[in-house]
Amino acid sequence: MADPSTYRPAPGTIPTEPGVYRFSDEHGQVIYVGKAKNLRNRLNSYFQDISALHPRTQRMVTTAAHVQWTVVQNELESLQLEYTWIKEYDPRFNVMYRDDKTYPWLCVTWSDEIPRVFVGRGAHRRGWRYFGPFGQAWAIRDTMETLLRVFPIRSCSTGVFNRARSQGRPCLLGYIGKCSAPCVGRITPEAHREIAEDFCSFMAGRSTGLVHRIEGEMEQASENLEFEKAAVLRDSLEALTKATERNAIVLGDGTDADVIALALDPLEVAVKIFHVRGGRVRGERGWVADRADAADDADLMEHFLLQLYGAGDVTQGEVRESGEGPALPRLVLVSHEPASLEALAGLLSEARGSRVEIRVPRRGDKRTLMDTVTRNAEETLAQHKLKRASDLATRTRALQEIQEVLGLDRAPLRMESYDISHIQGRQVVGSMVVFEDGMPRKSEYRRFIIKSFDGSDDFAAMHEVLSRRLRRLVEDREAMAEEVGDGETGSLVDPTTGAPRKFAYAPHLIVVDGGAPQVHAAQEVLEEYGLSDEIALCGLAKRLEEVWLPDEEWPVILPRTSEGLYLLQRLRDEAHRFAITFHRSRRSKAMVESLLDDVPGLGETRRKTLLAHFGSLRALRRADAEEIARVPGFGPVLAGAVVDALSARKPEPAVNTATGEILDDDPSDGHTMEP
């Protein structure tokens, strides 16, 4: 492990111009590549106090043994050089979006004399037309089988085609009407190419003209009493309609665009892309990558776009008349604005040969579509986490790592995590989540309404939550001891009520969200109830993902690939999610009461009835007077007064001052509140 001071450039030797830099290890292997508008400022940030650096950056600078840089003229050149070096050196500390599989595409061998259509994977060939990639191979094969009845283009391999030509007899597809059999001269190469052109036009989203033409031919055949031909055209029209309906229209203006969204957590990043052609979603892909450096949202998006389009590994329809070149649409919609927006747009425009626009949609259909892609990215990340966490061997390894790192005498089979949520001291709530054997135990989750809070002391709120939980643990144990004699164990079921004593289960480990101050506050509660020797405690600081232990001056830094760290992070994040959900629910109810305080004849009982009927303030705002009048206890006059009150007061959305998050008014969690 190298000391960064041993290879730090001498003061004043680093230029202040824009450029690209690379760190390499003692063997000369490049391990990180970056760019900067001011090389001196950026590189000096790596050689500050190492304890102030991000853990991933710490590992990078201590692994490196040399640093070099290249000065460029402008930001565009720095983007190009950075991408070139990343592709050349494949540095392990850069975020690399590697897919876990190859996605199928549909190809038309346009440069052949008799074009062929087939589904394939892998690299592209110059002169052929590609459509995709698609999410599932079976779906595009099914679509192709349907379209072959309408566009009987050749789909057989070269060997089958040559054998049929030499024998003078078509293959089975020629007999069943799924191929026009150019191999035996049923159709000329020119006519077959016209069929292939129609097929490509349909796959590129230009289906309206084809449908109108087939409808006209069908009507003409019917008028000429050619009913068999009309029936064939009718079946073709139905097949086209069926194939078209599989891709829902998402943009009514027929836009060609790629819609890209990120979903992030401190350790990983998920990316989802929808390929929209002719206003329809023609394909989608997803990636999950480790966050190997401290890049922010803007840098991650920029790196992804460079890797996606710079590699030319995505094609979608006919970008150019020849079907060649990178698959760059005219519009790229992103969830986060790239760091070098103008330079990146210029680089992609140069690659496409025409202008490419990169922007973040703010409203309308494009914003709605971006929300959908973002939800899919979040789902991709969640499914990746679930798949990783649900593996028994992985969970066992994670629990063993936590046991070793924290110095426990046994694996923490039951872990509890706590979090506090409020906005400027209002509607303060706490959450408790439980993981048993590395998996969530949602029936054991609890939520707390903080009763004593002065609006500024989060430690007091955490003290109250832990005190209430541990007090119940002690009380249940005392009750169990009174039921039986010495040396025996009492029942975990209350004999009076018949309800289980759920708080009688002691956790093996308590995880709090925060660093040393939060851990110290929690430790005081454990000592107050005499449980500090029985229950282990740690804190997980969100900024650097450090594990803090009681009475320790320095945190424990787990490797980024540690399954133990991954499990602790998932437990902490679940407590945060559960607290935020409860806070939103209470805030929605309080807002309804506040907005309706001045409505004559609307007391507390009717307010509760109103909220219980509609479920949330958002749903209540959408309701009209007639819908409200149908609620028991409401009439037309009172319903009209409620609508007027809601219309007159539309408060601005509240923002969590700690995270900057905009909080909506729609509660989405149905867990029972702990009194």
UniProtKB/TrEMBL annotation:
Organism encoding this protein: Acidipropionibacterium acidipropionici
Gene: uvrC
A single BP term in Gene Ontology: nucleotide-excision repair
Disordered, as annotated region: 653-675
CDD domains: GIY-YIG_UvrC_Cho
Domain of life: Bacteria
Statement: the UniProt record of this protein carries the keyword Ribonucleoprotein: no
One CC-aspect GO term: excinuclease repair complex
Keyword hit for Signal: no
Domain GIY-YIG intervals: 16-95
Similarity comment: Belongs to the UvrC family.
Predominant cellular place of this UniProt entry's protein: cytoplasm
Protein name: UvrABC system protein C
Gene Ontology MF, one: DNA binding
The UVR domain, residue ranges: 208-243
Record's keyword terms, sorted: Cytoplasm, DNA damage, DNA excision, DNA repair, Excision nuclease, SOS response
